[in-house]
Design brief:
Quinone Oxidoreductase, Chain A, domain 1; 20 strands; seven-stranded mixed sheet; alpha/beta; 345 residues; Rossmann fold; 28% helix
């Protein structure tokens, strides 16, 4: 089978590998039909690492897949031909964090495309039954590939920030995660919603598809000042940082109200970031870090199937497996007004 992998910094190759085989009783062979190119994939492509997690080449990539069941054991919950959404993380189930209902921070989790774990930019993948969920008939494979980033937004907005009806929000970074955070917050009844990004076409998407009340460009606007002015000096109840940049982190702390919550969803390129401890202390901010998602696949699938959120518009570009290198060049360069590119093996 074909598999796209990283073979060095900014080097993508498509290799021919043996088709994986089922080894465990609850293994399922899935034919991958779509997989999103995530910002974390681009970190590995551009930097060769995310924090302490470094590539060992060849490094297999892709962790936002959807596909079709090819093989399953007799008596399995799944049959060949079943269309499935996929949970990329396989947690141990026995550690203190798994027992506490926080599998996303399991130290032993095997997460697709992490160093040493297969990725989904390939034709076939073996997964456990527990990682699969039937994809409703009204959702396509590309929409299925959007369920993993939607799960991160769900975890940020509903699990961690615990959004309450009418609370005001500000999102810093209008990539797919930031846009999905905004969309979810609007669906679940937030008040005024601000979003900031230096790319005007992303801000236009936020207005047209996500319900933004105010769009701000940090290269043109004094973003914290504008938010404070519009909120009559109070600031927003919840800020969501979704860019991983020092400026966006600073802005998220400055724009949130006294006693508010600052949720950090972006992945910084830097090994360390800083913040103003006096500002955070005087406001008594709750600073919440987002680690992937937490058992959100079923909820996100149901939400998308209900039509309350439209995932189709987020997928702006599609590539074949042989075109994976071009997909990474597009996403890394913020070209052609890309929101989410997907690989269709």
């Amino acid at each position: 089978m074909k598999s796209a992998c990283l073979t060095g910094l900014r080097k993508v190759e498509v290799l021919e590998l043996p088709r994986p085989e089922r080894k465990n009783p609850d293994d399922v062979l899935v034919r991958i039909k779509s997989c999103g190119v995530c910002g974390s994939d681009v970190h590995y492509y551009r930097d060769g690492r995310i924090g302490p997690s470094a590539c060992s080449y060849p490094h297999y990539i892709g962790h936002e897949p959807a596909g079709v069941v090819e093989e399953a054991k007799p008596g399995s919950s799944f049959s060949p031909g079943d269309r499935v959404a996929i949970e990329p993380g396989l947690n141990c189930g026995v550690c203190e964090f798994c027992r506490d209902g926080r599998p996303n921070i399991c130290p032993s989790v095997k997460f697709l495309a992490s160093p040493g774990v297969p990725g989904a930019f390939q034709e076939y993948l073996v997964l456990r039954e527990s990682q699969l969920l039937r994809l409703p008939d009204n959702l396509g494979f590309d929409e299925g590939a959007m369920l993993e980033p939607l799960g991160i937004a769900w975890h940020a907005v509903l699990n961690l920030a615990k959004l309450q009806h009418g609370e005001s929000i500000a999102v810093f970074g209008a990539g797919p995660i930031g846009l999905l955070i905004l969309s979810l917050a609007k669906i679940y009844g937030c008040g005024e919603a601000f979003i900031s990004d230096p790319l005007d076409w992303r801000l236009d998407f936020a207005k047209r598809h996500c319900g933004a009340d105010f769009v701000l460009n940090p290269e043109k606007d004094d973003v914290p000042r504008r938010i404070l002015e519009e909120s009559k000096g109070r600031g927003v109840d919840l800020s969501f940082e979704a860019a991983g940049m020092q400026q966006s982190i600073d802005h998220s702390f400055e724009a949130v109200r006294i006693g508010g919550k600052a949720v950090l969803a972006g992945i910084p390129e830097a090994q360390a970031i800083s913040y103003n401890p006096h500002l955070a202390r005087r406001k008594e901010l709750q600073i919440l870090n987002v680690r992937r998602s937490k058992q959100t696949l079923k909820d996100c699938t149901n939400l998308a199937a209900s039509g309350k959120i439209k995932l189709g518009p987020y997928v702006t570009h599609r590539f074949s497996l042989d075109e994976t290198a071009s997909a990474f060049e597009l996403v890394d360069g913020y070209r052609d007004k890309v929101i989410r590119a997907v690989i269709n093996p």
